[in-house]
Design goal:
By secondary structure, the protein is an all-alpha fold. The protein contains 15 helices and no strands. The relative contact order is 0.08. The model has no long low-confidence stretch (mean pLDDT about 75).
Length: about 350
């Protein structure tokens, strides 16, 4: 009995049709892809919290989903509303500050600045030149850039509405995933098993553990940095320390760090002539800004037993490659790739994935 030759044209057309179907589906879902990725990361990272609430609410999933949805709304919306409300409430103060900026006098540099190695003399020279020129000359030098700055601010303000819509979509999709998490998880496990057998299913488990580990490291580090930063601002007497702490929390989650708030606060204290508290806040800021270099990797490694260099490369490389969502996607992709490659190098032995949680 002769074996029938495979129909190459039929196979090729079938693959092309499936490819076009996938591309068309992704194109239709393109407005929701970003929110869906974020919702998936949030739900996977906070699933133990949902189970904790469900156990204490009589096992009712609907109440637990409601609580988690309200917490997400508070997490996303409250800082934004507080920041907008504070800006409107102090709009007159901001205008008066802008009017008096041209008449403010720059204080002389502290004596210890000149003793700084390598850069002290240059800082003092630049500082004294700024005092000699005065604020008016500084404003005239910045004037050519005012138009570009204004255009940038307008473009950023125009994107606020889009960010708000994305946040609302993320919360809605997260609520749906909370409500039907188990069937979705089983479907993903079946897909992994269908794709690569038992190693594929275990790779899905590893991805979930990596997401939770990164969320633990990023979240706890952000809370720790912003909290300590807010304490330092309050001790030094910086106004609006509570609002600045909320801004630092958002910046830390975005991996921009608290330095964007704390170092300008240090400069403002020096400008105001309060050199003692400015020096204290400078030293405090140096500790707070650098602590994420060792706190975050240590927390992530506790959640996922992976090489520290791999975790660091995943967080930083993912942020550069994919933006903010790459903080989670980078370590997940590297963790799965590293484990599968390690299994392949080890003579095809099954990879030692962590076991699934009960």
């Amino acid at each position: 009995m002769t074996k029938q030759a495979p129909d190459l044209v039929r196979t090729t057309l079938g693959v092309l049709f499936i490819g076009l179907l996938i591309v068309a589906s992704l194109w239709i879902l393109r407005p929701f892809i970003g929110s869906t990725i974020w919702a998936t990361m949030i739900v996977v990272a906070t699933w133990p919290m949902l189970q904790w609430f469900q156990a204490r609410l009589g096992g009712r999933r609907s109440l637990a989903v409601l609580v988690m949805t309200l917490l997400l709304l508070l997490l996303f919306m409250v800082p934004m509303l507080v920041a907008i409300g504070t800006i409107f409430n102090h709009f007159d103060d901001i205008k008066s500050l802008a009017r008096t900026a041209a008449t403010m006098q720059i204080p002389p540099p502290p004596e210890w600045v000149a003793s700084l190695p390598m850069v002290g003399e240059k800082i003092v020279e630049f500082w004294m030149q700024a005092i000699a020129d005065g604020p008016t000359a500084m404003m005239s030098e910045l004037a050519p850039y005012a138009d570009n700055i204004a255009k940038w601010l307008v473009s950023q303000a125009g994107s606020v509405g889009s960010i708000f819509v994305q946040l609302v979509l993320t919360v809605i999709i997260s609520a749906l995933m909370y409500a039907g998490g188990e069937p979705a998880a089983r479907a993903v496990h079946r897909f992994g098993r269908r794709l690569a057998g038992a190693p594929g299913e275990n790779a899905v488990i590893l991805a979930g553990k990596s997401i939770r580990a990164v969320a633990l490291g990023v979240g706890v580090t952000a809370v720790l940095q912003s909290g300590l930063g807010g304490i330092g601002l309050a001790i030094a007497g910086v106004p609006y320390a509570g609002l600045l702490t909320a801004v630092m929390l958002m910046l830390c989650i975005a991996q921009l760090g608290p330095g964007l708030v704390m170092f300008p606060a240090v400069a403002w204290l020096y400008w105001s002539g309060d050199n003692s508290w400015a020096t204290f806040l400078l030293l405090w800021s140096s500790v707070v800004v650098t602590m994420d270099n060792f706190v975050r990797p240590a927390l992530i490694k506790r959640g996922a037993d992976l090489p520290l260099l791999l975790i660091f490369a995943g967080v930083i490389g993912g942020l550069i490659a994919f933006g903010l969502v790459g903080i989670f996607a980078g370590p997940v992709l590297l963790a799965v790739s590293y484990t599968l490659l390690d299994a392949w190098v080890g003579d095809g032995n099954a990879p030692t994935f962590p076991k699934a949680d009960a």
